[in-house]
């Protein structure tokens, strides 16, 4: 159960009578007709059977695309990292995947969780509840692992409600993990929003997804932070 | 509502080089019956999510048309858009003075809208590469092919000096599935229709992606749809060969003057 000392907002969201759709494990329904989501999930489960990653990255397209660029080979392969990112995934999809085999065969020391931006139709509170449900699930399945939640990035060319929602998610999650010894939130936004409120396509090529340049700016500090965490895990 | 110029009488059959949004221009390309092909109707993407990204991307492309003088224009969906994020773009396509107007998720309808609303203004590329259709989930293979045809017709009428290269739709999904069959059918229609349109050709870049056990590998398509760096490298070979052939074949004196 929760290790949160005082009743937090997330407690209320997660344990209240009304269920939180963002925190209810839900597989993706194959609307398009080529079964790609389930194929990827099955791949992740079988891939993990003969791997011994120290780090597991899990989340949505921001995680998935990271695996395609040089920065992954430069910074994260050396840390023995696996990538279980699926484009379009919302918190409830990640929750389902991790509950259905993706953690069954591995014991990473650190899980890097990056999800939430695609939870359209959910409130910031619900998205936070979804993220915290994943944090709790990881704790249940991998008692020794540390979960590093990455802050959801700003999006859209100019200020818009989704930027506000994402900032609120980050604030709520940061509060929720503050009392947890096994998890923390890392803000990985290096300052993508300029003084005029705009985001550049050089950093987020479609004002949502990172360019290789954008990934470098996010991943250098992330890599440093991860190395520190791994060293601390090694000491324990 | 955007101005699409002179609209032909619905009964006109003669090919005039202009697109009536209800009918492909030529008799040979008419859909069965006289119904409108929904895949050939220009349509903007509605901002449902709330951050207006599609319009922001379109606006940026329109602005790029004011500043750039591309020799090659790529237009389409995420297959086009993602290409620019890999090294291969800088290696092979930037040197050709190529512009990339891909937007993830786009259907033929969305590309048509963008082309009719500024993304062809002030530019005179020698080659336009079109890659779209895999996201047209609401439409039949014949409709999708008709939508791609309408794009090719629009390009040849708006940019009389351009050569249009239409890329075939790739296979998708880890295992055989209805979308693979649909994309094969689209390509089949395009193979027979496009040669009848002047200045347009079809290029199939999908060879080798489906293995003998009928699977697609994540080494080529990381999510069984989008290409990896290796996947793009594979399709770039035939593509760059064709582009160079077309570009080197264009006599200097026929170069369009742009201003």
UniProtKB/TrEMBL annotation, chain A:
Please tell me whether the keyword Cytoplasm is annotated for this protein. yes
Q: Which UniProt keywords apply?
A: Acetylation, Cytoplasm, Hydrolase, Lipid degradation, Lipid metabolism, Phosphoprotein
Task: Tell me a GO biological process for this protein.
Answer: lipid catabolic process
Into which EC class is this enzyme placed?
hydrolase
Quote a single Gene Ontology cellular component term: cytoplasm
Q: What does this protein do?
A: Alpha1 catalytic subunit of the cytosolic type I platelet-activating factor (PAF) acetylhydrolase (PAF-AH (I)) heterotetrameric enzyme that catalyzes the hydrolyze of the acetyl group at the sn-2 position of PAF and its analogs and modulates the action of PAF. The activity and substrate specificity of PAF-AH (I) are affected by its subunit composition.
What's the subunit arrangement here?
Answer: Forms a catalytic dimer which is either homodimer (alpha1/alpha1 homodimer) or heterodimer with PAFAH1B2 (alpha1/alpha2 heterodimer). Component of the cytosolic (PAF-AH (I)) heterotetrameric enzyme, which is composed of PAFAH1B1 (beta), PAFAH1B2 (alpha2) and PAFAH1B3 (alpha1) subunits. The catalytic activity of the enzyme resides in the alpha1 (PAFAH1B3) and alpha2 (PAFAH1B2) subunits, whereas the beta subunit (PAFAH1B1) has regulatory activity. Trimer formation is not essential for the catalytic activity. Interacts with VLDLR; this interaction may modulate the Reelin pathway.
Name its cellular compartments. Answer: Cytoplasm
Main location, first listed in the record: cytoplasm
Region named Disordered: 1-26
In terms of InterPro entries, this protein maps to: SGNH_hydro, SGNH_hydro_sf
What SUPFAM superfamilies does the record tag this protein with? SGNH hydrolase (SSF52266)
Instruction: Provide an example Pfam family for this protein.
Output: Lipase_GDSL_2
EC numbers listed for it are 3.1.1.47
Q: Which family does it belong to?
A: Belongs to the 'GDSL' lipolytic enzyme family. Platelet-activating factor acetylhydrolase IB beta/gamma subunits subfamily.
What GO molecular-function term can you cite, just one? platelet-activating factor acetyltransferase activity
Q: Which organism is it from?
A: Oncorhynchus kisutch (Coho salmon)
Q: Which reaction does it catalyse?
A: 1-O-hexadecyl-2-acetyl-sn-glycero-3-phosphocholine + H2O = 1-O-hexadecyl-sn-glycero-3-phosphocholine + acetate + H(+); 1-O-hexadecyl-2-acetyl-sn-glycero-3-phosphate + H2O = 1-O-hexadecyl-sn-glycero-3-phosphate + acetate + H(+); a 1-O-alkyl-2-acetyl-sn-glycero-3-phosphocholine + H2O = a 1-O-alkyl-sn-glycero-3-phosphocholine + acetate + H(+)
Its protein name is: Platelet-activating factor acetylhydrolase IB subunit alpha1
Automatic annotation (TrEMBL), chain B:
Report the EC code(s) recorded for this entry.
3.1.1.47
Report one GO cellular component: cytoplasm
Which molecular-function annotations from GO does this UniProt entry contain?
A: 1-alkyl-2-acetylglycerophosphocholine esterase activity; platelet-activating factor acetyltransferase activity
Presence of keyword Cytoplasm:
yes
Q: Which SUPFAM superfamilies match?
A: SGNH hydrolase
What's this protein's name? Platelet-activating factor acetylhydrolase IB subunit alpha2
Chief localization: cytoplasm
Localization in the cell: Cytoplasm
Gene Ontology biological process terms from the UniProt entry: lipid catabolic process
Reply yes or no: does the keyword Hydrolase apply.
yes
Q: Which organism is it from?
A: Oncorhynchus kisutch
> What is this organism's lineage?
Eukaryota, Metazoa, Chordata, Craniata, Vertebrata
Record's keyword terms, sorted: Cytoplasm, Hydrolase, Lipid degradation, Lipid metabolism
All copies of the SGNH hydrolase-type esterase domain together span 74-234
Q: What class of enzyme is it?
A: hydrolase
Reaction(s) the record says it catalyses: a 1-O-alkyl-2-acetyl-sn-glycero-3-phosphocholine + H2O = a 1-O-alkyl-sn-glycero-3-phosphocholine + acetate + H(+); 1-O-hexadecyl-2-acetyl-sn-glycero-3-phosphoethanolamine + H2O = 1-O-hexadecyl-sn-glycero-3-phosphoethanolamine + acetate + H(+); 1-O-hexadecyl-2-acetyl-sn-glycero-3-phosphocholine + H2O = 1-O-hexadecyl-sn-glycero-3-phosphocholine + acetate + H(+); 1-O-hexadecyl-2-acetyl-sn-glycero-3-phosphate + H2O = 1-O-hexadecyl-sn-glycero-3-phosphate + acetate + H(+)
Which protein family is it in? Answer: Belongs to the 'GDSL' lipolytic enzyme family. Platelet-activating factor acetylhydrolase IB beta/gamma subunits subfamily.
């Amino acid at each position: 159960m929760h290790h949160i000392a005082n009743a937090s907002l997330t407690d209320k969201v997660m344990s209240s009578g009304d269920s939180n759709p963002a925190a209810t494990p839900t597989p993706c329904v194959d609307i398009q007709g080529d079964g790609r989501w389930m194929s990827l999930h099955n791949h992740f489960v079988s891939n993990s059977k003969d791997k011994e990653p120290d780090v597991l990255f899990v989340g949505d397209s921001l995680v998935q695309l990271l695996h395609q660029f040089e920065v992954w080979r430069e910074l994260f392969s050396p840390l023995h990292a696996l990538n279980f990112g699926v484009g379009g995934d919302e918190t409830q999809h990640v929750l389902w995947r991790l509950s259905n085999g993706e953690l069954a065969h591995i014991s990473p020391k650190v899980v890097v969780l990056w999800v939430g931006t695609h939870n359209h139709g959910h409130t910031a509170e619900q998205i936070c509840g979804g993220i915290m449900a994943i944090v709790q699930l990881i704790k249940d399945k991998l008692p020794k692992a540390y979960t590093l939640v990455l802050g959801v990035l700003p999006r859209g060319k100019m200020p818009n409600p989704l930027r506000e929602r994402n900032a609120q998610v980050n604030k709520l999650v940061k509060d929720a993990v503050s009392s947890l010894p096994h998890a923390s939130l890392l803000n990985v936004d290096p300052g993508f929003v300029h003084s005029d409120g705009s985001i550049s396509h050089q950093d987020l090529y479609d004002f949502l997804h990172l360019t290789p340049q954008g990934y470098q700016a996010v991943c250098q500090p992330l890599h440093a932070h991860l190395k520190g965490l791994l060293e601390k895990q090694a000491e324990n | 509502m955007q101005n699409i110029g002179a609209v032909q009488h619905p009964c006109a059959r003669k090919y005039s080089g202009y697109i009536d949004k209800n009918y492909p221009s030529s008799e040979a390309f008419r859909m069965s019956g006289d119904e409108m092909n929904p895949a050939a109707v220009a349509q903007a993407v509605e901002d449902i999510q709330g951050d207006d990204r599609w319009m922001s991307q379109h606006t940026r492309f329109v602005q790029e048309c004011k500043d750039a003088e591309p020799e090659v224009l790529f237009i389409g969906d995420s297959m086009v858009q993602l290409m620019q994020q890999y090294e291969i773009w800088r290696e092979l396509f930037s040197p050709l003075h190529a512009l990339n107007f891909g937007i993830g998720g786009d259907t033929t309808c969305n590309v048509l809208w963008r082309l009719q609303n500024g993304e062809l203004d002030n530019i005179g590329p020698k080659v336009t590469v079109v890659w779209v259709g895999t996201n047209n989930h609401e439409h039949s293979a014949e409709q999708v092919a008709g939508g791609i045809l309408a794009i090719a017709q629009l390009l040849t009428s708006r940019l009389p000096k351009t050569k249009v290269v239409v890329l075939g739709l790739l296979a998708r999904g880890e295992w055989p599935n209805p979308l693979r069959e649909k994309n094969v059918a689209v390509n089949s229609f395009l193979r027979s229709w496009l040669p009848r349109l002047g200045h347009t050709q079809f290029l199939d870049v999908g060879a080798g992606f489906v293995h003998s056990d009928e699977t697609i590998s994540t080494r080529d398509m990381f999510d069984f749809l989008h290409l990896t760096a290796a996947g793009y490298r594979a399709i770039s070979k035939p593509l760059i060969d064709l582009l160079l052939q077309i570009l080197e074949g264009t006599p200097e004196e026929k170069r369009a003057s742009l201003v």
